[in-house]
Description:
Shape: elongated
CATH superfamily of the largest domain: Vaccinia Virus protein VP39
CATH architecture of the largest domain: 3-Layer(aba) Sandwich
Largest sheet: 8 strands, mixed
Distance between the termini: 23 Å
Bound molecules: S-adenosylmethionine
Low-confidence stretches: 307-312
Mean pLDDT: 95
Helix content: 10-25%
Structural class: alpha/beta
CATH class of the largest domain: Alpha Beta
CATH topology of the largest domain: Rossmann fold
Amino acid sequence: MSSGFGPCTGYLAPLGFLPQMQAELSAVVAVHERLVIAAGPPQTCVWAENIWYEVESVHAPSIGTAAKELKSRQRNWWPYAWHLHRRHALIQEKLPHVAAKPLHFPEAKPPSTLGSFALLDEQTLLLANRCSSPFPNGAPAFAEPSSPLPPSRAYLKLWETFTRLGIQPKPGERCIDLGASPGGWTWVLAHLGAEVTGYDRAPLDPSLLALPNVHGVIGDAFQTKPEKIGAIDWLFSDVICYPERMLAHIQEWRASGLCKNYVCTIKFQGDAHYGVIADLLRIEGSQLMHLHCNKHELTWVLLADQGPAVSL
Ligand SMILES: C[S@@+](CC[C@H](N)C(=O)[O-])C[C@H]1O[C@@H](n2cnc3c(N)ncnc32)[C@H](O)[C@@H]1O
């Protein structure tokens, strides 16, 4: 698809966060429900759930033509069907099967690319061979955990982060988990074999405190001063606080040189505080993303070893 200025890129917003995503983008040429098309190469877009590279618009007067056009380009496709549901489903039936089964954490993400397509009307197909996410419409699905169950659904944020990045704490690595209660994140880290200290004003679930590699400290997470705690492999934070407060704490730890890796939720209230996004993006080597399971929040990650090529 050409806007008259060259190739276009598509950005799929998470459910409920289209305004945030649109505010980040320039040169927007069309908006199709949650899919925003903008002229030019990919722009930095932290709210996007999936990015469609080099979007094409194809005339496809029948279901058969649409399937043929898609199959001629590559094997794996997933529809973004915000309307014409039946027609999208009929096209999908004619394409090679894409399993898209829920992952059993810590199973690796699918290695193959997944293209995306959408019908603009009965005869016009929008498609992208390559997208930033290997998951259908950027949304990974996980099989439910087996018992002992985590004490909160927040475990999904770490499962998604580790799966997307292809990296996770190793057994024995020292982690601090700020804003840890009731303990979904601590549960994930403890089950990976890491040594975890959870800090919160509220206690951790007793089932976690019974584990030999989990310690709980009740109090203000921001009193976790680097010089008192010493060297750590990972700093995790899911504390509810103003984004600027989180940024200041990250900067304190970075200045100390005592922490190797960071995974921090940046929580927003209303649309104030978005200025912090640019400050976080300026931290070299770091990335900011909206996880599928994130609400009005972003996840900021900085890794000592970037590991394999990182995609959404
Ligand atoms: C979203 S919940 C964390 C959920 C947790 N990550 C889990 O996996 O179960 C946010 C937590 O931040 C804690 N919190 C907020 N401000 C805090 C502070 N200044 N110090 C310590 N904990 C704080 C709250 O008590 C709450 O438990």
